[in-house]
Write a structure and sequence with these properties.
The protein is of the alpha/beta class. It is about 35% helix and about 20% strand. Strands 3-2-7-21-22-23 form a 6-stranded mixed beta sheet, covered by helices on one side. It has a 5-stranded mixed beta sheet with strand order 9-10-11-13-12, sandwiched between helices. β9, α5 and β10 form a beta-alpha-beta unit. It starts with a helix and ends in a 6-residue tail after the last helix.
Length: about 600
């Protein structure tokens, strides 16, 4: 009897303990099962399931292990064997500028035939109302076309007729049709900005071709003169563009400012979304001075009135954070990536050293991170002299701040070591994928084999982030950029990088995730799917790790999650896709063609 009573008491105690423990169990908000999950940790772990709690990764493991975190309120998603990766993070993408123009632009990104591109131009001209323009603003290469050539002025005029049109190729050249020249009141007597020209034919008449030689000012000012969208149209455009990025698996982007893009007024459509808690992407941004000769004054004002933030909990509701200054700091110190024109030399601009030094010193003294646009090795070597001076004069303070070079196509190995000593990093972009053929034509195939020297950057122990530099000097689509990193080939499939400078698929993805997180000082909170990291990930349309290399270009996301919340869904998950308003205005090319083209 005594034993029976003790057994009852033990059972009651055990039941009570179980109930108590049950109350303390951690229950996931979301679980994804039956996936091939690339954690992107040092062990290169591949898991089957992932649990999300409070916008972060709770755990990864087998289906059996992870389903223990569910209850009746947990949302379960079956990945059906698909590959799941950390969300892509473009460390140099002009997001806020691209977003406000997106609905007004016809995209040739991905179009494989010039014939098709011109047909799109013609169709868009037919639906464009009076007072508006047809515009193709970069993101393409003539070598992606079967015809392997630029359109001619005659072809553009024939396609667009009396509707003003402007077509931009990277920051190298542009085409205004006859109606566009007339609308902008440009004739044979019009003076081009310094470092640019209006091309004339043998008869002395304008051809409509605008040449950056190498300064892109002529292209900047042409774009700036085009009629803008209304505020409501820009907000709609911003929603459309960020959804486009989500559809490609992008969950974060770092905005490098841009010419003709003023802060704060031109950032307003993105800020409206952020203030409303409607950001579907984590966005960090840098400030780019607009007024040549007055850059120091601009930075002084920005630093006095704005605060940079790092490693703060960037919830999905906000997702909009100031990081620092760049990518241009001083216009006099800028070089340009126009491989159709000779390399610009800093020696021809006598004030560049003084201008750059005082602005870098201003950033360091105020604790602001900075990034610097630099294409050529000669530019980087000269700039490093200035950076080292500032570091010495501040007793090493510069080297304690986050700073980096952007681009660095021809950086020298000796200067990689100098960057390492100063704790700097590099953000590389796929500009060579869109202009590599012209680089080879000017500088030779031998130099292109290590342009940029990505493998040497990694071996030097430098932090390296990856990106596109979209939307003008490259497409914003990350997959052709990853293809370029892996194969060394352009969008025209021209071989550039030698085998020693090509990355494995895992290495390339690491640069596009954890590598890019370093640029915004967030490598401890995102970039992998380890426990405690942000729950930002994408289920892909195919297996990135095993499909033929060429097919990497065609990858998309079929389910994109930011902070544990679905921001894009298609295919079998289409019912989860968040509502998106119809693109406006009615003539928007986005309504007909969307963004990146698969034709």
């Amino acid at each position: 009897m005594k034993q029976f009573i003790l057994l009852i008491l033990f059972s009651i105690t055990l039941f009570s303990c179980k109930e108590k423990n049950k109350g303390n169990e951690v229950i996931a908000d979301l679980i994804v099962t039956n996936a091939k999950i690339a954690i992107m940790d040092k062990a290169k772990s591949i898991k089957e399931a992932i649990a999300i709690k409070d916008r972060k990764v709770l755990a990864t493991g087998t289906n059996e292990e992870i389903l223990k975190f569910k209850n009746e309120n947990t949302k379960i998603i079956d990945a059906n064997g698909k590959t799941l990766i950390p969300g892509l993070n473009d460390s140099h993408l002009h997001l806020t500028r691209a977003a406000r123009f997106y609905n007004a632009e016809l995209r040739w990104d991905g179009v494989t035939s010039l014939k098709t591109a011109l047909a799109m131009l013609k169709e868009q001209a037919e639906r464009t109302p009076k007072g508006q323009w047809v515009r193709v603003i970069g993101g393409w290469s003539p070598f992606q076309f079967e015809e392997k050539r630029f359109p001619t002025p005659e072809e553009i005029n024939e396609a667009t007729g009396d509707v003003p049109a402007f077509v931009l190729f990277l920051y190298s050249r542009g085409w205004l049709n006859k109606a566009g020249l007339k609308a902008m009141k440009i004739d044979e007597n019009t003076l081009a900005p310094e470092g640019s020209s209006y091309e004339k034919g043998p008869d002395g008449k304008l051809t409509g071709v605008l040449l950056a030689e190498p300064s892109p000012t002529i292209l900047y000012q042409t774009i700036a003169a085009l009629p803008p969208l209304s505020e409501s149209e820009m907000v709609n455009s911003t929603k459309q563009y960020y959804r486009e990025l989500n559809s490609l698996g992008i969950t974060s982007g770092i905005d490098a400012g841009g010419g003709g893009h003023k802060f704060p007024e031109d950032f307003s459509s993105t800020k409206i979304l952020a203030d409303a808690g409607a950001m579907p992407i984590r966005l960090s941004y840098y400030l780019f001075p607009q007024n040549k000769g007055a850059e120091y004054d601009e930075f002084q004002e920005w630093i006095a009135n704005n605060e940079v933030g790092h490693n703060g909990e960037i919830h999905l509701e906000h997702g909009y954070e100031l990081e620092g200054g760049g990518e241009f700091l001083a216009w006099s110190a800028g070089d340009f990536e126009n491989f159709l024109a000779p390399q610009p030399l800093l020696e021809n601009r006598p004030t560049w050293r003084k201008d750059l030094k005082q602005i870098i010193r201003l950033h360091v003294d105020n604790g602001w991170p900075f990034r610097i646009h630099a294409t050529y090795g000669e530019t980087i070597a000269n700039m490093l002299d200035v950076i080292e001076e500032v570091n010495n004069e501040t007793n090493g303070k510069l080297a304690t701040k986050r700073w980096l070079f952007d681009h660095a196509e021809t950086v020298k190995e000796t200067d990689l070591k100098r960057i390492k000593v100063l704790n700097g990093g590099i953000a590389i972009q796929a500009r060579m994928a869109y202009a590599g053929e012209f680089f080879v034509e000017r500088y030779g195939s031998e130099k292109a084999k290590q342009a940029p020297p990505v493998r040497k950057m990694i071996e030097a122990g430098l932090p390296v982030g990856a990106g596109t530099d979209g939307t003008r000097v490259a497409s914003y689509n990350p997959w052709p950029a990853l293809y370029w990193l892996i194969t060394g080939k352009t969008v025209g499939d021209f071989q550039l990088a030698e085998p020693s400078n090509q990355l494995s698929r895992e290495e390339a993805l690491q640069l596009y995730t954890k590598g890019s997180a370093w640029v915004s000082n967030e490598e401890t909170v995102k970039g992998t799917l380890e426990n405690g990291m942000y729950a930002d990930f994408a289920i892909l349309s195919d297996d990135y790790f095993t499909i033929p290399e060429k097919e990497i270009n065609n990858l998309k996301s079929i389910l994109t999650i930011v902070g544990g919340k679905v921001v894009f869904a298609s295919d079998e998950y289409k019912s989860m896709n968040p509502a998106l308003p119809e693109a406006i205005p009615a003539w928007s090319p986005v309504k007909i063609y969307g963004g990146f083209q698969d034709k």
